[in-house]
Structures are given as C-alpha cells and as structure tokens.
Amino acid sequence: MSYRESKSSTTPTDASDYEKDLASGEQAIKNSKVRKRIDELLEKKRLKELLDDSDDWDV
C-alpha cells in the first residue's frame, strides 16, 4: 500500500477517537506538570553542557 492510499483511508472519526485517548482532568494536569519539568531539566542540562564546554573559565 502506498503512502497516498494509506492517507486517504483515514476517516473523520479517527480524530474523535484521538480525543477519547487524551487524558482529561487531573491526569491532564499531572501530564502537563511532568512535561514542563522534563523541559526544564533538558534546558538545564543543555545550559550546563554549554558552560562546561566553554573555555572562559581558564585562569
């Protein structure tokens, strides 16, 4: 099956099924907080690597 055939086989009901799979209420809030924390940690790691790689600290 080609890409074009598989793309045309999706139906509008697939979008509503996707909405049912999403977390709601407290779980959605928890997921949002976890994602935010992960993003913060990744940014902290990125900045630390930039500082560690810099030669500005040589005295």
Order of helices and strands: HHH
Q: Give the radius of gyration.
A: 22 Å
Number of strands: 0
Backbone shape = elongated
Largest sheet: none
- As residue ranges, the low-confidence spans are none
Helix content: over 70%
Counting structural domains, the number is: 1
What is the first-to-last residue Cα distance?
63 Å
Structural class based on helices, strands and sheet pairing = mainly alpha
InterPro entries: PA3496-like
Region (Disordered): 1-26
Write the SSE topology.
Elements lengths: L2 H6 L4 H9 L4 H28 L6
What does this structure look like?
InterPro entries: PA3496-like (IPR058059). The chain has 59 residues and is mainly alpha-helical. The chain has one domain. The chain is built from 3 helices and no strands.
Please tag this protein with its features.
59 residues; mainly alpha; elongated
Short description:
Helices cover 73% and strands 0% of the residues.
